[in-house]
Amino acid sequence: MFSTGLLHWLTSDQGLMVLLAQNWLLGIALIALVIFLETGLVVLPFLPGDSLLFATGAFLGVSGIAPVIPIVMIATAAIAGDSVNYALGRSWLGQWIIHRNWIKPHHLDKTREYFATLGGPTVTLGRFIPVVRTVAPFFAGLSGMCPRRFMLFNALGGVIWTSSLMLAGVWLCRISWVREHLSLFSLAVVVISVLPMLLHLLPRMWKQAQIG
Hints:
Blueprint: H1 2-11, H2 16-22, H3 24-40, H4 49-63, H5 68-90, H6 92-99, H7 105-125, H8 132-142, H9 147-172, H10 176-180, H11 182-211
Helix pairs in contact: 2-3, 3-4, 3-5, 4-9, 4-11, 5-8, 5-9, 7-8, 7-9
């Protein structure tokens, strides 16, 4: 419910778009804060990052504002958010979770092995998948992924994720139907971003159901 209400406020004529029109720098700063919270706090995976970036790009395109400064601000927030999340995984909190045996030792070993081999692509490409982009940095820190390697793929993912979605909004806002149905199109962006995870999980869920 909160996520739906926030998405409506972000894309409605009375919400964030009005704030951006009145003071686009303040609006971009607020958007950067939302992106930071979504990527930086593992307990906030429900914030609508994808749709927010697209809607922001659409506003910039309609308003004729150059997207360079907004992209730099928001990409910086995304990179900082993942860095905080990674640090939380490496901190006493991550160690406390391990000592509480919330993660079984063999699962933790598999996680460490996974991030040692595929952690980089997961941190980068996981940006485009809701929930994954929130939990991946935390587990990267929890598993002891090399800090330099993490920061490289974190920065790469943050720049690609924010710039691609915002520039897509800038370009697609030229289409009148997109401008008139921004909320619907923003929702479609979320659905498309979730599809890879669903296509990966559904066969496993089906197989488990057949076994059960």
